[in-house]
Design a protein that fits this description.
The protein is an alpha+beta fold. It contains 3 helices and 4 strands; from the N terminus they run αβββαβα. Helix 2 packs across helix 3. About 20% of the residues are buried.
């Protein structure tokens, strides 16, 4: 039985980790990438030097896309809810940071956000599994 929770340990809070996530394309020690499934874009970074295991997430909804705070909060909640149900599609033992960035114009319904987060997590998982297979060979 899976525990569908999202606690403090699963949230990306460290400013150093956030900077490393968005500047990872210039670094060589970790594996990084990005993927898009409308209305969400994800930037991810795998760092094996991190002490704790597991995936940490950050959710960003820009004010430029949604002017009202109520709408931004609603989209963050929808993303969190979709991630909570789909988080088990990624391996637990990876040391992974993911930032979900809203790129849609206006509010989108829960089902499109849920499908989008699922596609993003599947794409990340495929890329990581293919890179792990290359490392083993």
């Amino acid at each position: 039985m899976h525990k569908f929770s999202l606690n403090k340990r699963q949230r990306l809070c460290s400013q150093i980790a956030i900077d490393r996530l968005f500047l990872s394309s210039r670094q060589t020690e970790g594996e990084s990438g990005h993927t898009v499934a409308y209305p969400w874009r994800a930037v991810w970074y795998r760092d094996d030097s991190r002490e704790e295991t597991g995936t940490k997430i950050l959710i960003s909804v820009p004010k430029k896309k949604l002017k009202h705070a109520v709408d931004r909060v609603k989209m963050r909640r929808r993303c969190r809810e979709a991630y909570r149900f789909r988080q088990f599609s990624i391996q637990k033992d990876l040391k992974l940071d993911i930032a979900f960035i809203y790129i849609g114009n206006g509010l989108t319904d829960f089902t499109s956000s849920h499908d989008s987060i699922g596609k993003i997590l599947n794409n990340i998982n495929k890329k990581l599994l293919s890179s792990l297979d290359k490392d083993e060979k």
